[in-house]
Amino acid sequence: MMKNIRNFSIIAHIDHGKSTLADRLIQHAGVIDPRNFQDQILDTMDIERERGITIKSQAITLPYQARDGTAYTLNLIDTPGHVDFSYEVSRALASCEGVLLVIDAAQGVAAQTIANLYLAMENNLEIIPVINKIDLPTADIERVLQQIDTELALDPLSHLQCSAKEGIGIEEILEAIVQRIPPPTGDPAAPLAALIFDAQYDSFRGTVIHCRVFDGLVRPGDQIRLMSNQAVYKVEEVGNFLLTRVKADQLSAGEVGYIIAGVKTVSDTHIGDTITHDHRPRAKPLPGFREFKPVVFASIYPIASDDYEDLAVAVEKYKLNDAAFSYQKDSSIALGHGFRCGFLGLLHLEIVQARLEQEYDLAIIMSVPSVRYRFTLQDGTTQYVDNPAYYPNPSSIGKAEEPYIRATMIMPDKYLGSVIKFCTEKRGVDSKMHYLGPKRVELIYELPLAEVLYDFYDRFKSMTQGYGSFDYEVIDYRESKLALLDILVNGDKVDALSQIVFRDSARARALQFCERLKEEIPRQMFKIAIQGAIGGEIIARTTVSPFRKDVLAKCYGGDITRKRKLLEKQKKGKKRMKMVGSVSIPQSAFLSVLRSDSDK
């Protein structure tokens, strides 16, 4: 019965205890044998366990018997907390009626707490504030209650307290879910309307579609249609998510579950698409979740060119599992064929690289990350460039612009001075600051996205000793002095290392690149020049010293002219060798350039 279903999500800032709370709810529902239980039960990927973060939103159906004896079905969709994965949060919230907003009792309200609250409000969801980690000696519940009132504008009397680690307050949270979150609305007799919020590829069954049914019902044997491309499939199996897929006779309005329909072509499934019946279609698709545009771009190449086909298959399958990842074919003189990919941030880029290597057993290399710049040419046309290979002719550029973000940082006020100095170094402008409490300050800066790409988040976290929180949104394009920085090795341009940079910081960036390449490129019998250039102007240079054969070893005594003759002969030989010799750049050299300073 629909009135006994509750669809909810858990949202919070990173590391405020979402996954631990989900573990306790699952344990309380008794869907897992205690012998098989492990922490972060919904974090199924190795990389999630290694880093201790949630990357993918996961759905699970929990049976719960309330205190009044009524049996409920709770559909939990766990969400990530990091700013780079806010697209996962938006997908989960499109399928829910309510959320648990988890706040750390020691850290209080953080930047991503506020960002996720706004997402929940946009979806008109019921919000239940939950103060977690009340067992910590540093817990300050009174301060957090004040923040819930002043910073979140929620009723502090509606809050719940728990310790997910100790299992305190879990029963009260489950009761609040069934009492305060409304049941789903929908008409089981209406034409089928199901929103695809996730999908995964099964090598035996094809694409497994994760969906929330809003209207109608779907059974095995039904002919369904995907409304974005009008593709028609026959349903083989439907069911619910426990810790594994569990078959069901049907999925009805209000339920969350999966559909297997023999979708073998990965590209046919689009996250946010609407499923309807072929014989009785819905008039228009459901409004999908918020669309995200990539802000960071990098090219992926296989280390061995023979692996290109494997990479192409892996990228297509990965796209199915990650709606915010985008790609198109690309090629490089130095690295061969690959793909130009779009990401939501640097952590997203790292996760994609790690998952492609771990899950698909690929050895890949990534080019230098960049953002999408906008150029207005002399003839009035506008050109967007995210790949340095397509940088326009400098003489044809009328105006160059780069994307800016609005960064929101919340931190204890004792770190304010160093953070302001850091933001100023990163070309931050138009700062705003206000105190949220006696010792907590919110700092808002407008920064160029390119400056945030490399090591901003890591340095900000270390500067605030882990107490600072950071969130950002892309706002607009602004005029800037840009230049194309090329790296030359032995006079030859290495296209994979070209980069669009801010003109005033080009020399520092070029010197950094040259020094790192010098450490990685093996010495030859001739001198190798590594140079940074903008157009025809060399702005930085380092030299890899040659091996030196001591041709004077056999000259003991005798006339100086004989020694000079031997040295001149050696000099001519090295010059000739430099003309015909080629320098092979090892893969480690490309990787060293990609490292940020904090990785060294």
Describe the structure.
- With 600 residues, the protein is α+β, with helices and mostly antiparallel strands.
- Helices cover 26% and strands 33% of the residues.
- It folds into 5 domains: 2-180, Rossmann fold (3-Layer(aba) Sandwich); 193-277, Translation factors (Elongation Factor Tu (Ef-tu), domain 3, Beta Barrel); 296-366, Elongation Factor G (Translational Gtpase), domain 3 (Alpha-Beta Plaits); 373-479, Alpha-Beta Plaits, CATH 3.30.70.240; 483-599, Elongation factor 4, C-terminal domain (Alpha-Beta Plaits), CATH 3.30.70.2570.
- An 8-stranded antiparallel beta sheet has the order 11-10-16-7-8-15-12-13, with helices on one face. A 6-stranded mixed beta sheet has the order 2-3-1-4-5-6, with helices on both faces. Strands 21, 22, 23, 24, 25 and 26 form a 6-stranded antiparallel beta sheet that branches.
- A hairpin with a 3-residue loop joins strand 7 (193-202) and strand 8 (206-215).
- Helix 12 packs antiparallel against helix 14.
Strand content: 25-35%
- Per the CATH scheme, the topology name of the largest domain is Rossmann fold
What is the level 1 CATH name of the largest domain?
A: Alpha Beta
Helical segment tally? Answer: 14
Overall geometric form: globular
Task: Strand order, main sheet: write it out.
Answer: 11-10-16-7-8-15-12-13
**What would you report as the Rg, rounded to the nearest angstrom?**
29 Å
* Relevant CATH superfamily of the largest domain: P-loop containing nucleotide triphosphate hydrolases
What kind of sheet is the major sheet? 8 strands, antiparallel
User: What is the domain total for the residues?
Assistant: 5
Count all strands and give the number.
31
